[in-house]
Amino acid sequence: MTDQPMLRVRHRGPTPQQIRTRRIVTVAIVVVVAALIVGAIFLFAPKGGTPVAEPSETPTPSSTPTPTPTPTPTFPLDQFDIDSAASLQVVVNKLRPLNPQDYAPADLVALNIIGGGQLRAEAAAKMQELLAAHTAETGLEMQSLSTYRSYSRQVDVYNGWVAQLGQEGADLTSARPGHSEHQTGLAMDLGAVPSQCNLDQCFATTAQGQWLAANAYRFGFIIRYPEGYTPITGYEYEPWHVRYVGVPLATEMHDTGVMTLEEMFGLPAAPTYAG
């Protein structure tokens, strides 16, 4: 404790003038703050009643290829006969058998190419042109792996696949007799020379497979069973299997981006057999 006595100081309250001054200052501050708030509201509010857009969700793309819609063709498709077995544009699949089912072309000719085989006359001539152009443009060669197959031959081929894979597996790989494009004499399986990825999906990555995919339409051929279209064609991707449909139709499909005959002609998908 200190020995000195404490000095007490008496404080007086604020004067009336000081109280009035403090009130004026407080009111002024409140007015300024309110003005700032109102100004901010008018500054940042949407003008003219325009609603503020909600953020949109970007859909996650599907990894499954989307089938192309039936196009608007640049020429009438009804000029093509897709029903008669002898037509160059006949559509044969698991729901559309040949009529008659044991149909055999009358104008088969031998191919003068590596691997040989037979195709119908017009398709054979265009295949000879295709292979000659391929060699001239790339310096490479392709060979025939399978061409025309008769109904009886298709019976043996299909039964062989059934024995190896079972019926379900065989139906993804080979056509049942009477439903085969090879029986039309318009389809052909091509392979690289020397053999590389023949009758395998990796054929698409070879120089021969890439040229074929890009140029087959020039000679009237299409890749009949494209990648990702099994729900429509009923068959696995076969980059080696080409089908002759004629230059006008093949070019139309190429230019419009339509991948299958089913889509081109507005036909039902044929993933399985009717019975």
TrEMBL record:
CDD domains: LD-carboxypeptidase
GO MF terms held by the record: peptidase activity
Record organism: Pseudolysinimonas yzui
Keywords: Membrane, Transmembrane, Transmembrane helix
Domain (D-alanyl-D-alanine carboxypeptidase-like core): residue spans on this chain: 118-246
Source superkingdom: Bacteria
Ranges annotated as biased composition (Pro residues): 62-74
Family matches, as InterPro entries: DD-CPase-like, VanY-like_core_dom, VanY/YodJ_core_dom, Zn_M74/Hedgehog-like
Membrane-spanning residues: 21-45
Annotated segments matching region Disordered: 51-74
Name this protein carries in UniProt: D-alanyl-D-alanine carboxypeptidase-like core domain-containing protein
GO biological process terms held by the UniProt record: proteolysis
